[in-house]
C-alpha cells in the first residue's frame, strides 16, 4: 500500500490533536509511528500517554522552549541546530524502514522561522519511502508543499479564549 502525505494547517486549535489521533489509530493497527515536535517543550499532556505506547516513538525536544520572537540570536542558532538534528535523525530512521508513519508536528513553524531548511522538507516529501505515511502540521505551509500533499485539512480559528486573555490550560491546550 502506498503511503500518502497529510497536512493539518491553519490558525485554529487541533492540528497536533488531529496528527496524534491519526498516529494512535495507526499504532492501534500495528503500525510503527515516529513523531518529532518542533518548537514545543516536553510538558504537553499527550506526551505522557504516547510514551507508554509500544510502537509510538517521540524524539525528545527541549524541556521548555520560548517563542522565537523571545529568543536571542544565540538561542535561535541553538534551536535551529536542534531542529536540523531532530529532522536528520528522524529522516534516517524513516528511510531505514523503522517506521510506517512519520509525524512532523509544527514543522511549518520551524521552516517559516528559518530554523529548518525548506528544501529538507521538500526533499523528504518527494523521496519518502513508498509505503510511509507522512503527516505535517503547522501554520502557513508553502504553496509548493501544499501541492505535493495528498490530504490538506485547514483548521481555521473562528473564536479562541486566548483572544480574551485566557492563557493556555494544562490538559486542554498543552
UniProtKB/TrEMBL annotation:
GO terms for molecular function: ATP binding; corrinoid adenosyltransferase activity. This is Cob(I)yrinic acid a,c-diamide adenosyltransferase. CDD domains: CobA_ACA. Keywords: Transferase. One of its GO terms (biological process) is cobalamin biosynthetic process. The lineage of its organism: Bacteria, Bacillati, Bacillota, Clostridia, Eubacteriales. InterPro entries: CblAdoTrfase_CobA (IPR003724), P-loop_NTPase (IPR027417). Its EC number is 2.5.1.17. Pfam families: CobA_CobO_BtuR (PF02572). It is an enzyme of class 2 (transferase). Coiled coil: none annotated.
